[in-house]
Amino acid sequence: MTHRQYFIKGAKDGIPIFLGYFAVALTLGITAKNAGITPFQAMLTSLTNNTSAGEFIGFTLIAEGGSYLEMIVMEFVANARYLLMSCALSQKMDTKTPVWQRLLMGHGVTDEIFGLSISVPGKLDPFYTYGAIAVAVPGWTGGTFFGVILGNVLPVSVVSALSVGLFGMFIAAFIPPAKKDRVVAGTVAAAFALSFLVNRWSVFSGMSSGLKTILLTVVISAAAALLFPRKEEEADVG
Question: How far apart are the first and last CA of the chain?
């Protein structure tokens, strides 16, 4: 297949991602609106930061007046998984692939686009991923843009109701693996319980919500890794 054929195939495979991204990004746009972000600013953020969790954290910290340090740390924690995805894709590409093409792919790597790209039989032609990115990312950026507009014209009660949609997406992300793995389920339960306690204990009252989230993320993930290490063969299967 030629680069053009790979690009077209990637674009076709990216259509379902476009539809899903647009729907989810609408609720993200409403979150951005609640943080005082304009439609253009929200669209630009989605264009340069292709991650729902990262953008949600960013908009939330902006709304709460979080510090730059909190923003940097939380964005790193939320988006660290993309480093692993990019490393995995680099092993699937031809060694002669130029650096600029690798950088372009790295910018557009998301969970869904990674899933498409890694499933391609044999070596990965970058143009397949470019095709998926070219279709999927406009859905993400456009959905965020129109989400802010909807947040400006819809009644407050409707906006509040739609804002819950993004939380539903996050729940849908961890429920399936939690059903299959008791360690994941226990870690999720511990995260909920500790988050509730930290927000109730007076000793943490002077700490911002962003810093609380950072500490909980690091402590819980480190504890799970130390107490329940995964064997190499188990990690390969996952």
Answer: 30
Do residues 25 and 143 touch, judged by C-beta distance below 8 A?
Answer: yes
The dihedral over CA atoms of 65, 67, 204, 28, expressed in degrees to the nearest 10, equals 60
pLDDT digits (tens, 9 = 90+) for 196-235: 888 888 777 777 665 676 677 778 878 887 888 766 444 4
- The token pair that represents 106 in the structure block: 């790295």
Q: Identify the CA nearest to 210 among candidates 111, 77, 81.
A: 77
Structure-block tokens of residue 237 = 């299967």
> DSSP secondary-structure letter at 125?
P
Q: Which pTM was predicted?
A: 0.66
**What is the 3-state composition of the chain as percent helix, strand, coil, each rounded to the nearest 5?**
80, 0, 20
Torsion over CA: 209, 159, 169, 45 (sign): negative
